[in-house]
Design goal:
The structure is a single chain. The protein has three domains: about 180 residues, Rossmann fold (3-Layer(aba) Sandwich), CATH 3.40.50.1380; about 120 residues, Cytidine Deaminase, domain 2, CATH 3.40.140; about 120 residues, AICAR transformylase, duplication domain (Cytidine Deaminase, domain 2), CATH 3.40.140.20. About 35% of the residues lie in helices and about 20% in strands. The chain contains 19 helices and 23 strands. It has a six-stranded mixed sheet with strand order 8-15-13-11-9-10, sandwiched between helices. Strands 18-23-22-21-19-20 form a six-stranded mixed sheet, with helices on both faces. Strands 3-2-1-4-5 form a five-stranded parallel sheet, with helices on both faces. α4 runs parallel beside α8 and α12 packs parallel to α14. The chain is elongated, with a radius of gyration of 28 Å.
């Protein structure tokens, strides 16, 4: 299929982001612009080369704007097949419309403000959906842009290929129908007062993977539609081999964990568990501390930092270890040059601001699925309740909250040792909390890390005092845990006996 060179464009947008960039480009390409209402007024501030839709159709708006683009001159121009229907257009003195730039009234955003029912109904777009559906149906001859974030890729496609490619037009058409399905579901949810549980998530793409968790399992990656940011599923893959199922699972675990921290931080994940986490003044320092927690497990792991990867940090990673995936918000050119020396390293660029098109987690069970909210609750210092005679110091409180954030991403039963915002030992996924503590201590000893005066986090309460006794043996100085056991008094007494400060969060972080 050949490229198209749009000669006319219909623009009617609720979200006017990036509009000037697009209009300037279209004017430079001598594209005739037709527009409506508020969009027309905005474009007039940019250029006089714009025609109001009522002038184009010879039909004035009516019913307070409810009817303005629902006109055969508009829809015939969009739907006309260029190979067979141009004579019909000519007979009616109509003309083709080659580009449709339309985004819809923000229905979900409107109802989120709890408006009057009548006001909400007025935000149900009619003309916009009709136009973008028509353009998407006729993508063989028409390009459609339903999202302001697509304007730059549209411009790039035209410049690179001297026109808009069939592949770009088809991709945009698929995006339209995904947007419309989601839009209609949002309206259905609002109107369906007896049942508001209709799923409102859809997928814009499906990627077959080589295999799943194991080679005998098939797998695919479904990416949510309408994403505004680069997330793990739609990250910019700058270099490296195709991501595997396990790479994506581990990358998501690393990225979600590192986003918990405001300072320059590094998380290293192996088999979906953090094996090293640290914050420091810079990313090289954070990586060094995270790596030193457990260098053995870090080998072949996933590394995430919560900012821009610099050259020094990249060089140290490259020299020090084998790594499967690197994740950062951006990269210095010199850092990319370093990683380019090892072509198999997957280098991902992801945004800190994340989309959340379907809040919650989904787990398959026999005969159904479990759905729950995301575990997003954050504990602050003022939320902590000290239950021991000894109060934690400010330094200990900082480390306790750091350890608590890490424990949230460690498989239960989770025990995390921390000192100076560096994990000293992590015990994960054990049936016994005491064994998890022993593993954390063992990991620290293996790497000759001094645990004395570290703090400890437990993702759930201690059912017996043995966990506190084990912490005391390791030299732990303060503990953070949810509390809530019927033996809390016994556990608190044990902490007092050992001179350990202990705070309760009043919430747990099970992760199965």
């Amino acid at each position: 299929m050949k490229n198209i060179l749009p000669k006319s464009a219909l623009i009617s947008v609720s979200d006017k982001k990036n509009l000037k960039m697009l209009v300037d480009f279209l004017i430079a390409k001598e594209v005739k612009i037709i527009s409506t209402g508020g969009t027309f007024k905005r474009i007039k501030e940019i250029t006089d080369d714009v025609i109001e839709v009522s002038e184009f159709t010879g039909f004035s708006e009516m019913m307070d704007g409810r009817v303005k683009t629902l006109h055969p001159k508009i829809h015939a121009g969009i739907l006309a097949r260029r190979a067979t229907d141009l004579d019909v257009l000519s007979e009616k003195n109509y003309e083709p419309i080659d580009l449709v730039v339309v985004n819809l009234y923000p229905f979900k955003e409107t109802i989120a403000k709890d408006p009057d029912f009548e006001d909400a109904i007025e935000q149900i777009d009619i003309g916009g959906p009709t136009m973008i559906r028509a353009a998407a149906k006729n993508f063989a001859d028409v390009a459609v842009l339903p999202n302001p974030n697509d304007y730059q890729s549209f411009i790039d496609d035209w410049r690179k290929n001297d026109g808009i490619t069939y592949e770009f037009r088809k991709k945009q058409a698929a995006k339209v129908f995904a947007i419309m399905a989601k839009y209609n579901l949002a309206i259905a949810n609002y109107l369906n007062e007896e049942n508001t549980d209709i799923p409102d998530y859809l997928f814009s793409s499906s990627q077959e993977m080589r295999y799943g968790e194991n080679p005998h399992q098939k797998a695919k990656l479904l990416t949510f539609s309408g994403l505004e940011n680069r997330n793990i599923a739609n990250a910019d893959i700058i270099q490296g081999k195709e991501l595997s199922y396990n790479n994506i699972v581990d990358a998501d675990a690393a990225w979600e964990c590192v986003k918990e921290f405001d300072e320059p931080s590094c998380v290293i994940v192996k088999h979906a568990n953090p094996c090293g986490v640290a914050s420091s003044k810079n990313y090289l320092g954070a990586y060094d501390l995270a790596f030193n927690t457990d260098p053995t497990s870090a080998f072949g792991g996933i590394i995430a930092i919560n900012g821009k990867m610099d050259h020094e940090c990249a060089k140290e990673i490259n020299n020090r270890q084998f790594v499967e995936v690197i994740i950062a918000t951006d990269y210095e050119k010199e850092a990319l040059d370093v990683f380019a020396t090892k072509k198999n390293i997957r280098v991902l660029k992801v945004d800190l601001e994340a989309d959340n098109p379907y809040p919650g987690t989904i787990k398959k069970v026999s005969g159904g699925i479990l759905i729950q909210d995301d575990d997003k609750k954050i504990v602050q210092k003022e939320d902590l309740k000290c239950v021991t005679k000894i109060q934690p110091t400010d330094q200990q409180l900082d480390d306790l909250l750091f350890a608590w954030r890490v424990a949230k991403y460690v498989k239960s039963n989770a025990i995390v040792y921390v000192k100076n915002k560096q994990t000293m030992g992590i015990g994960a996924g054990q049936m016994s909390r005491v064994i998890s503590a022993e593993i954390a201590n063992l990991k620290a000893k293996e790497e000759s890390l001094e645990v004395t005066d570290s703090v400890m986090a437990s993702d759930a309460f201690f059912p017996f005092r043995d966990g506190i006794d084990k912490a005391a043996e390791a030299g732990i100085s303060a503990i953070i845990q949810p509390g809530g056991s019927i033996r809390d008094d016994e556990v608190i007494n044990a902490a007092n006996e050992h001179g350990i400060a202990m705070v309760f969060t009043g919430m747990r972080h099970f992760r199965h």
